[in-house]
Write a structure and sequence with these properties.
With 86 residues, this protein is α/β, with parallel strands linked by helices. It is built from two helices and five strands, in the order βαβαβββ. The N and C termini lie close together (10 Å).
């Protein structure tokens, strides 16, 4: 089953914020798609994209450790229902 992850919206946010270093945080169910997501974002922006491989239990679970890395933007996919792709 494929889902619409609104990656074009993510690209818009990266570009709008002129983000240079972006952290992608995914719930466990999307982690197998991490490389595909990162490849798309890298191809569509000038940002360096890193993956947070730790836990992600929703919007309140922001990894404080990434602040030390100088991350400009966190993109987080939570546990809400996603639209299915056509």
């Amino acid at each position: 089953m494929k889902y619409e992850l609104e990656l074009t919206h993510a690209v818009d946010e990266i570009n709008k914020n002129n983000a240079k270093l972006v952290c992608v945080q995914l719930p466990d169910g999307l982690k197998p798609k991490a490389k595909e997501i990162v490849d798309y974002l890298t191809d569509q922006t000038k940002a360096e994209i890193v993956i947070w491989a730790g836990s992600c239990f929703g919007a309140c679970d922001v990894p404080l450790e990434i602040e030390k890395l100088g991350v400009d933007l966190i993109l987080q996919w939570g546990h809400n229902a996603w639209k299915r792709a056509e």
